[in-house]
Specification:
Distance between the termini: 33 Å
Structural class: alpha/beta
Order of helices and strands: HHHEHEHEHEHEHEHEHEHH
Radius of gyration: 19 Å
Bound molecules: flavin-adenine dinucleotide
Number of strands: 8
Helix content: 40-55%
Strand content: 5-15%
Largest sheet: 8 strands, parallel, barrel
């Protein structure tokens, strides 16, 4: 229900306009809690701060569902620029991106072509490129594109599976057999019951099963969650099955459960923070609100403060 409300609001132009006006203009503005800033320089600053705290990062230039080839081309060029800037900055080389940002809705071949351009620049420079997973209408095509690239020899890439989808456990077995790197998440999108569990307890149970499968049979999986129960389970499973802390990593989102983030690093685990940045931050931001209604109070306090 909450996801439904926020996904509907995410389509509101009026709200987007209002949020864009107030959300990011000062370092203390409300959206800054979850988004590093609107420029690549902001993202580099955030990444450096994370590195200083012993954390890894993946930079995500926000943007999704572009509808024209021109916009897809612009997003691709922007990503190439981000790659060059990361290299110049001398920070860790790891990015995340979405296929609909590269034009999947306009033309699949064009999106694949754009991704290839990005990989041609990124892979020789030692980058790892994670293809984020979008809503379930894109699952099949995303996995297909990933696998095609994999079979063409690209190894600096990884993909994401969502435990809320019934199909994901099967997909995980398949990707484990390939030797591909998988990020396991619960899933950020509102999905119909034809394809996804509708109760959180079922999503959590599937997540628990998937994290065990990923740790035991996967290649350097990423356990991406802020759920303390899942983190404890992953730690315990790894310990009891002799899986060293160098064979997997935890991942969390920028600005979420910073207490847990610090605890994991202190305990000697690898932690990667997903650092979103860019002008197209509104849909990402609304997904984060939908996950936790308490965030709305946090935002409202921020807005009131801005006006004052
Ligand atoms: C690194 C990373 C990459 C991701 N990539 C994708 C992707 O490609 N595709 C996709 O569909 N989803 C992605 N997600 C989002 C994911 O699917 C979930 O929507 C999100 O992580 C919340 O689920 P959770 O596992 O933290 O568990 P939950 O059970 O939802 O939350 C557990 C606890 O975490 C805290 N928490 C969770 N969300 C928030 C929030 N928004 N604000 C404040 N506190 C919060 C709360 O304390 C909550 O009790 C990604 C998540 C991470 C961490």
């Amino acid at each position: 229900m909450t996801k439904f409300v926020f996904h509907t609001l995410a389509r509101s132009r009026w709200l987007k306009h209002l949020a864009s006006r107030y959300g990011m203009r000062r370092p203390t503005s409300f959206a800054r809690r979850f988004i590093a800033g609107e420029t690549v320089a902001d993202a580099i600053d955030a990444a450096r701060a994370l590195e200083a705290r012993g954390m890894h990062h993946t930079l995500d230039l926000l943007g999704e569902n572009v509808t024209t080839l021109e916009a897809a081309d612009a997003a691709t060029r922007a990503y190439l620029g981000v790659i060059d800037t990361i290299v110049q900055a001398g920070i860790e080389r790891n990015i995340s991106l979405k296929l609909t940002q590269l034009g999947l809705d306009a033309d699949k071949a064009c999106a694949v072509d754009n991704l290839r351009k990005i990989l041609e620049r990124a892979e020789p420079a030692g980058f790892f490129v994670r293809i984020d997973m979008e809503d379930s209408t894109y699952t099949e095509v995303t996995l297909e594109v990933f696998e095609t690239l994999w079979h063409h020899g690209h190894r600096g890439i990884g993909v994401v599976l969502q435990s809320e989808l019934y199909r994901s456990e099967r997909d995980l077995q398949h990707l484990n057999a390939l030797g591909a790197r998988v990020r396991v998440v619960k899933g950020a999108y509102r999905e119909p019951k034809t394809v996804a569990y509708q109760h959180k307890a079922d999503v959590d149970r599937a997540y628990a099963r998937m994290l065990k499968t990923a740790l035991s049979g996967g290649t350097y999986p990423a356990i991406a969650t802020h759920d303390p129960a899942m983190i404890d389970l992953a730690r315990e499973w790894a310990l009891t099955h002799g899986i060293g802390a160098d064979r997997f990593e935890f991942q969390m989102l920028y600005g979420i459960r910073r207490d847990l983030q610090a605890d994991l690093v202190k305990a000697g685990y690898r932690l990667r923070i997903y650092v979103p940045f860019g002008r197209e931050w509104f849909p990402y931001f609304m997904r984060r609100l939908g996950e936790r209604p308490a965030n709305v109070l946090f935002v409202l306090r921020g807005v009131t403060g801005e006006r004052g």
